[in-house]
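agent> fetching stored inputs for the adenosine-5'-triphosphate docking request
agent> found them:
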Amino acid sequence: MEPVIEVNELTKRYGGKTAVDRLSFTVRPGRVTGFLGPNGSGKSTTLRMVLGLDAPTSGTATVGGVPFRAHRRGLHHAGALLDAGHVHGGRTARAHLSALARGNGIGARRVTEVLEEVGLADAARRRVGGFSLGMRQRLGIATALLGDPPVLIFDEPVNGMDPEGVLWVRRLFRRLAAEGRTVFLSSHLMSEMEQTADDLVVIGQGRLITAESVRDFAARGTRLSVTVATPRPAELTAVLTAAGASVEGEGEGGREGAAGAGKLVVTGLPADRIAALAFENGVLLHELTTRAATLEEAFMALTADSVEYLAGGTR
Ligand SMILES: Nc1ncnc2c1ncn2[C@@H]1O[C@H](COP(=O)(O)OP(=O)(O)OP(=O)(O)O)[C@@H](O)[C@H]1O
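agent> prediction call returned; pasting tokens
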């Protein structure tokens, strides 16, 4: 059986609110797949349905061809980190893992192994209540790994981790995928995913926006822009616009009629063409810099229409 996650027309409504809206996608083994969307876009709700913790209003989610609930030995089948704050604070890390291991027919040696794997061997006898968020995340990852499952699902695993933890977890995900497992991670930050994921599933307001490889997303989603500084921004804007470019002023100086040098951000024309047009029209340039939009910017542009709440309520 191939450890594939298959989501088909999955829908979840809470009263009048549609949290997940006819969502379909496939997550394959041997790759790290990033599940991306702004806050509140329905990622956690989807993952809960994949793991059988929530019932869909309609549609299906299967792991290895059957609903997750139908698998008897769950921890051996799929491991998940959903909410790192969920662990009983009075227990030690080892006691927490040992209880789960016993309930799933897993030996004590495996508990020691996963504690070492996630870097918590020295903290194994400390109460989880005193753990930092990053340590709780590590414990959650240890829990997911306990049954050595072919499918791993992590909801915002990098939250609260320090830079060293982030590097560690990235390497771990890459290794788990290289071992042939299915690794599915949610995040609201593209910058995290571009370092880690091979494939992306991007959603907004519960709907699929795109499912493709990071490479295809980067090739399609990023566009080049050229920053131009000139003492005659209005004149250059007119020349470039006439040549088909789209031009925006950057800061005060870029505005029409502004005195002094202005910076313009130009899209739709390459730098050498801009330089030639400026030269032909006798406009002096102080700067000409090509810049690729980051994947984060491409992601934000793609999901902008589906962001519910923006800081400051500017929409
Ligand atoms: N139990 C619930 N009852 C009512 N509404 C809910 C419930 N759970 C989630 N929602 C709503 O469903 C939508 C999707 O929430 P969800 O937590 O799945 O999003 P998310 O993408 O995981 O967001 P975040 O990144 O903030 O965790 C939100 O508008 C949320 O308020």
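agent> quick read of the result: Residues 253-259, 309-315 have pLDDT under 50 and may be disordered.
agent> awaiting further instructions
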